[in-house]
Design a protein that fits this description.
Blueprint (H helix, E strand, L loop, with lengths): L4 E2 L3 E7 L8 H17 L5 E3 L5 E3 L7 E5 L3 E7 L5 E6 L4 H9 L2 H10 L5 H19 L10 E2 L5 E4 L2 E10 L3 E9 L8
Length: 192
């Protein structure tokens, strides 16, 4: 199986999600993720989870992976760098406007307020949300809050607790946005 998206940060594999004959949503997602891992790595491949909840491929722990899902799509990212990888997918949901104060930093909130009511507001919030979710998964830092994750104005990098993360975005399936985050080594870090 070939990745749908291949970038310097990660190979991204995609699987559409379907309603599972009587299964709850969590079980549909779990089975879809396992199915995708088997399609990529072979029938013997299994997903395990670290104490932090982060997924890994049993017997292939050297691979850095991240899994995300929307209501219709499951993603698996395999990182290409030395550090971790984080991925998120999110549709353009109006709810992001209502909860923006819960996930935006003060600087991001000021930028969002300049966009309030415009066509640019929801895409900005969608980009911030997916970036922060991807960084959260990459950081593996207990207690890290989304407001602590700060994205730069152009959404090229994010910082959290002294670490810097490179960001990239891809549009998928119309209005869904995919964000990928990979930690930048300290000597390669970019200031916001």
């Amino acid at each position: 199986m070939k990745p749908l998206i291949s970038t310097p940060l990660a190979d991204i594999y995609v699987l559409p999600l379907h309603n599972g004959d009587g299964m709850n949503r969590r079980e549909v997602e779990r089975r879809a993720a396992q199915s995708l891992v088997k399609a990529i790595f072979g029938e013997e491949a299994e997903i395990g989870h670290h104490e932090s909840g982060a997924p890994y491929i049993i017997g292939r722990e050297e691979l850095k992976i991240s899994i995300s899902h929307s209501s219709s799509t499951l993603l698996l990212a395999i990182g290409k760098g030395e550090g971790g990888i984080g991925i998120d997918i999110e549709g353009a949901r109006e709810r992001l406007i209502a909860v923006r104060r819960k996930f935006l930093s003060d600087a991001e909130l000021r930028r969002a307020e300049t966009l309030a009511g415009s066509d640019a507001e929801l895409p900005y919030l969608q980009k911030c949300w997916t970036a922060k979710e991807a960084v959260y998964k990459c950081a593996l830092t207990p207690g890290l809050g989304l407001r602590e994750i700060e994205t730069d104005t152009w959404h090229h990098v994010a910082t959290a607790r002294g670490k810097t993360y490179q960001l990239e975005f891809h549009t998928y399936n119309g209005d869904e946005l995919i964000a990928v985050a990979a930690q930048i080594k300290t000597d390669d870090a970019i200031e916001l």
